[in-house]
Structure formats: structure tokens, C-alpha cells
Design brief:
It is an enzyme of class 1 (oxidoreductase). By secondary structure, this protein is of the alpha/beta class. It has twelve helices and 14 strands. The protein folds into two domains: 159 residues, 3-Layer(aba) Sandwich (Rossmann fold), CATH 3.40.50.720; 164 residues, Dihydrodipicolinate Reductase, domain 2 (2-Layer Sandwich), CATH 3.30.360.10. It is globular. The two termini are 35 Å apart.
């Protein structure tokens, strides 16, 4: 099957090339950019002699005629406009931006600060949280690929929220991300001199992933809820650690909770639940599509601590996008994604 990638010069697009270059079923038919046409290896020298396909201008009609699936690895606002051009066409679309994730246009405009896509496109898009929306993904033609923070957070909280096991008002999320999550464009905040040997909070109570997380948690909770969500930038390239604190409605031991999580995620190859007393680190999932989860129930306070780690460019973006493509086309969801994490 033929894949087209739009937005190949960003980190997410670069990861799509890395994954799909070795995929057993998909071939990269074309790669597209709004910049000058040139071999992608000039943009990414590490691809020299491995993948030298030429970046071309975006021609949506030609893409529809020639490809089976198109990955939109473009920024929000740009992705929404491109996605609209593929509406009601014979092609599957996976959007890695935030433009199709929020079902409320008003909420999108408030948090993203620009106009939303047409409501008909929002209604067509399926939220691509692979482990929890697989049945919908199989039948979908448009996928809203989840954000990086929401992926780590939702996979960590889902077994509890779907069973109404926690006080939803108690949810506090403390999350840290590597600098690649900010994208490839230059900014003062991501300069080496600013970030090295530093650790800083940003977008306090204003991060655009807040409504995305709340939207899905509210669906599982059967009523609207609000979270406290803090994001921090750490001086590493890849990785997200989300540490979550919740109050349990009933007394649960750590052992019982680990057994529950292992049961819930059995059959889901990319979620690994750690044994008691062992917590995951971001380096242990680097370059892979895994989400690793550690748990500890504090019987003294009645609170549960959940630690969830992912590679933001893989499970938080390109890896999950390919996992969703596999599901959409009826393939083994592990196809092209069974790489071992890079360590150390």
C-alpha cells in the first residue's frame, strides 16, 4: 500500500520516514512540503544513501489518485485545511496535529487561538487512541492522532476512569517533556543556552492539550470533569513522563492495581506495566512505540501515583500514527513498530 507524507521536514515527519522505510506493507510513495523541492536527505543528512526521495509541492488531487493513506505531519491550522481537501475522497487520512481532536469548535478556538475546521470534518474524525478506540479506528477514514501528553496521560488513567474508581475532581497531572516536543522551528526557549542545565514549567493551566485530555476523560467518566495539568520542559531530546495523582474511591493495594492494569492491557503489545516497586524512565522507551506504566497506592493517604512514560515522537506521534494505519488497513498493529528501545 502506498503512503504519502505531508510535512516531512518536521520531527514527526522524519520519524514517519524512519518507520515506514522498514514497514512490511506500506511503501512511501511521495513526500511533500510547502518549502523548496529538494531531496529530503538535504534536510535530514542522516538519510543520505538510505532515503533520497525528493520533497515535492502538495497536490491533493494527485495524492488522492496515487496513495492509499496520507499522513499529515503539519502544524495545527495548516493540517485542518489540508484535511478538508481530502474529505469524501477515496483515501485514508491520519492527522498528527490537534485540528481534528476536539469535537467542540468553540473549545478549539479558545485553546488554539484560530478558527476550527468544518463541523462535518470533526464528526468524521475518530480519536486515534489505539488501545482504547480500536473498533472505531478499524472503520475510520479520518484519524485524529492523539497528542503526546494526552497519550501518556490517558493510557495511564484509562483503567481507572473507565471503571469509575477515582474521584474525578482529584486528578492532578505533573508532566515533563523533552525539547523535540516543541518542534523543529527555532525559538528562544529551546536554545541550548536557555535549556541546558535547566528545568522549567510552561503554559501554566493554559496548555492546549488540557481540553483534549478532559474530553476523553469526561467520556469515560460519563460527566464533564476538570483536571490540574502542569507541563515542564527538561533538557533531553526525547521522552515524556507523566506523573499522575488520584484519590481512589475504595481501598486498593498496589498489587491489586498492578494486576488490574496487566489484565486491562493484556493483548495490547505496546503497553508494559511494571512490577511492584519498579517505575519506568523515559530512556527505557526511547525510539520505540512503548508506553510503560508504574503504580503505587499509598494506603496512608488513599492516593494512587501513576507514572507513564513514552517517546513523544513515537507513541506520542509517528509511532501511534502508524499503529493506527495498521489497524485501519486490517494489518497486525505491530507491523513496522517492533523496534527495541534505544539504550542507553
Amino acid at each position: 500500500m502506498k503512503a504519502a507524507i505531508i510535512g516531512t521536514t518536521g520531527y514527526g515527519g522524519g520519524e514517519l520516514i524512519r518507520i515506514l522505510s522498514h514497514h512490511p506493507e506500506f511503501t512511501i510513495h511521495s513526500i511533500h512540503t510547502t518549502r523548496d523541492e529538494k531531496p529530503v536527505s538535504e534536510e535530514y543528512p542522516h538519510l543520505t544513501g538510505i532515503f533520497d526521495k525528493v520533497l515535492t509541492k502538495i497536490d491533493t488531487e494527485k495524492i488522492v489518485q496515487e496513495a492509499d493513506v496520507v499522513f499529515l505531519a503539519t502544524p495545527s491550522k495548516a493540517s485542518g485545511k489540508l484535511a478538508g481537501a481530502f474529505l469524501n475522497k477515496d483515501i485514508k487520512v491520519i492527522d498528527l496535529s490537534g485540528d481534528l481532536r476536539l469535537k467542540s469548535p468553540a473549545t478549539y478556538k479558545k485553546w488554539y487561538q484560530h478558527d476550527p475546521v468544518d463541523q462535518s470534518l470533526l464528526e468524521k474524525a475518530v480519536y486515534g487512541l489505539s488501545e482504547w478506540n480500536k473498533d472505531q479506528i478499524r472503520e475510520a477514514s479520518f484519524i485524529a492522532n492523539p497528542g503526546c501528553y494526552p497519550t501518556a496521560v490517558l493510557l495511564g488513567l484509562a483503567p481507572l476512569l473507565t471503571r469509575k474508581m477515582v474521584d474525578p475532581r482529584s486528578i492532578i497531572i505533573d508532566a515533563k517533556s523533552g525539547v523535540s516536543g516543541a518542534g523543529r522551528s527555532a525559538s528562544i526557549g529551546t536554545l541550548y543556552a536557555e535549556l541546558n542545565e535547566n528545568f522549567k514549567i510552561y503554559k501554566v493551566n493554559e496548555h492546549q492539550h488540557i481540553p483534549e485530555i478532559e474530553q476523553q476523560l469526561s467520556l469515560w467518566n460519563d460527566e464533564e470533569l476538570r483536571i490540574t495539568f502542569s507541563t515542564h520542559l527538561i533538557p533531553v531530546t526525547r521522552g515524556i513522563m507523566a506523573t499522575m495523582y488520584v484519590e481512589l474511591k475504595e481501598e486498593w493495594t498496589t498489587d491489586r492495581l498492578i494486576d488490574l492494569y496487566k489484565k486491562v492491557y493484556s493483548g495490547h503489545p505496546f503497553v508494559r506495566v511494571r512490577k511492584k516497586g519498579v517505575f519506568p524512565a523515559i530512556k527505557e522507551v526511547k525510539g520505540s512505540n512503548f508506553c510503560d506504566i508504574g503504580l503505587h497506592a499509598d494506603e496512608r493517604t488513599g492516593r494512587l501515583t501513576i507514572v507513564s512514560v513514552i517517546d513523544n515522537l513515537m507513541k506520542g506521534a509517528a509511532g501511534q500514527a502508524v499503529q493506527n494505519a495498521n489497524i485501519m488497513f486490517g494489518l497486525d498493529e505491530k507491523a513496522g513498530l517492533e523496534m527495541v528501545p534505544l539504550y542507553p
